[in-house]
Amino acid sequence: MPNRGTRPEDSSVLIPTDNSTPHKEDLSSKIKEQKIVVDELSNLKKNRKVYRQQQNSNIFFLADRTEMLSESKNILDELKKEYQEIENLEKTKIKK
Fold first, then answer.
1. Contact 83, 27 (CB under 8 A)
2. How far apart are CA 86 and CA 45, in angstroms?
3. Model's pTM, two decimal places?
4. Average pLDDT over residues 24-48
5. Which residue, of 20, 79, 80, 85, has the greatest Cβ tally within 10 A?
6. CA–CA separation, 35 and 8 (whole Å)
7. How far apart are CA 3 and CA 57, in angstroms?
8. In Å, what is the CA distance from 34 to each residue of 14, 20, 74, 95?
9. Region label for 56, one of left (φ > 0), alpha (ψ between -120 and 50) or beta (otherwise)
10. Contact 24, 85 (CB under 8 A)
């Protein structure tokens, strides 16, 4: 099962702008996608094989299931953190 392209280096650096809502919506969809990846990986049987897609290619390589699960959880945490930062920025803008 490939990691669907949601990687920490893909997520943009948070830049406070007036149009943070589209970025927030994009993050929200990435978070949902990453949650599905984590759920799928955590529900696999131990003897199942997991494959990682080579970046910008249709080539897949065998990967360690626990390593992929750990990496996917870390990506999910980073996305949630970035989403929370955007929400906090919006709250401070509203207060001003």
1. yes
2. 37
3. 0.72
4. 95
5. 79
6. 14
7. 13
8. 19, 21, 10, 32
9. left
10. no
Residue 75 tokens, joined? 């990506």
Beta bridge partners of 63: 50
> Coil, strand, or helix at residue 61?
strand
Q: How many residues does the chain have?
A: 96
Q: Which amino acid is at 72?
A: S
Q: What's the CA gap between 73 and 57, in Å, rounded?
A: 24
Structure-block tokens of residue 39:
């759920």
Place of tokens 């920025």: 89
Tokens matching residue 4: 């669907």
User: Is there a contact between 41 and 93 (Cβ–Cβ < 8 Å)?
Assistant: no
